[in-house]
C-alpha cells in the first residue's frame, strides 16, 4: 500500500513546486514591470522648445536660473512689459511639460498679462525642456527649482512676485509660497492636494495598469528608486503657511486627470482667504482654452487685488 502512495505524493509535490514557481515568476514579472513603469514616470521624454515669445510678438530675454539646490541650471525666458512692471508673475508648468505648456497654452496667456503691464517669467523645471536634471519628482525637488526662480526675480526686479502654476506646477507653487513669504499670492490651476494620496487613488490614470498589485508596488518602488519622500509634495500640509496671502484655485469639474475635489479640499482649508472658480466641460488644465477672456479676467482681478494689498502696506 505504501508503494501505491509514493507516485501520488511525488506528483503532488511536482504540482505544488510548479505552482509556487509560477507564483514567484508572476511576482517577479509584476515587480519588474513596476520598476519599469516607475522609471518611465520619472524619466519622461523632453518636450522640445519649438516657439519663442517673439513668435507671439513679444520682446524677451533668455535667462538661466539656479535651483535652490545650488547646482541645477534652469533655462527660461523673461518677458518684460512696456514701461514699469506692476508685478512679476512666474509661470510653473505641469508634469512632463515645459515653459510653452502647449495644452494651456502659456505663451498666448503670457501675452495677455504682459499687455496689462506684468512681467512674466517662463522656465523649464528640472529634467524638462532645456533645463538640467535627469529625473522628474512631481513637485518634491521642483519646489527648489521654483524657489530659485523666485530668488532670481527678487534679485533682479523691484516689483512684487506672484506665482501661476498648472497641475504639478500649481501644487509646486503652493509649496514654494509656503517657504517664501515674499510671494504675494498664487493662482493654482488644477493642483493635487497631496501627491501620495492622489497617486494612490489615481495611479491607474497614468499607468493604465490595475491598481492591484501595481499601484502599491509602484508607490513602494518610486521613493526607493528616486530617493524621494512623496510626503514632501503635499500642498494640503503647506497652505497654512501661505495664509493670510491669497490663493485663487481654478479647476474644471470635468477634469479626468486630477479630480476637482482636490482643489475644493485645498480651498476649504481657508475659505475666508482663498478663492475657488470651478469651470465645466474643460478637461485637465483646459479652462483657459475653453473660457479665454473669462479666465484672463479672473487672473487680472486677482493680481490687481494683490497690488491693492501691497499699496496699503
Summarize the structure.
With 313 residues, the chain is an alpha/beta fold.
What's the layout of helices and strands?
Elements: H1 2-42, E1 61-66, E2 73-79, E3 88-92, H2 106-115, E4 119-123, H3 142-156, E5 161-166, H4 168-179, E6 183-189, H5 195-207, H6 211-226, E7 247-252, H7 261-267, E8 275-279, H8 287-291, H9 293-312
Helix pairs in contact: 1-6, 3-4, 5-6
Describe this structure in words.
The protein has 9 helices and 8 strands. The mean pLDDT is 91. By secondary structure, it is α/β, with parallel strands linked by helices. The chain has 2 domains: 1-42 and 198-229, no CATH class; 47-194 and 233-312, 3-Layer(aba) Sandwich (Rossmann fold). The chain has helices at 2-42, 106-115, 142-156, 168-179, 195-207, 211-226, 261-267, 287-291, 293-312, and strands at 61-66, 73-79, 88-92, 119-123, 161-166, 183-189, 247-252, 275-279. It is 44% helix and 15% strand. It has an 8-stranded mixed sheet, with helices on both faces. Helix 1 packs across helix 6 (211-226).
